[in-house]
Amino acid sequence: MIQNPQLNITQNPHSKRKNGWFSDTWRRLRKNRLAIVGLIILILMILIAIFAPWVAPYGYDDQNIKAAMIFPCKEYPFGTDNFGRDILSRVIYGSRISMQVGLISVGIALMAGGILGAVAAYFSHMDNIIMRTIDVFMAIPDMLLAIAIAASLGAGMRNLMIAVGVSNVPRFARVVRAAVLTVKEQEFVEAARSIGSSNLRIITTDILPNCLSQIIVQATLGVASAIILGSSLSYLGFGIQAPLPEWGAMLSAGRVYIRTHWYMTVIPGLAIMLAVYALNVLGDGLRDALDPRLKN
Question: CA 80, CA 62: separation in Å to the nearest integer?
Answer without folding.
Answer: 11
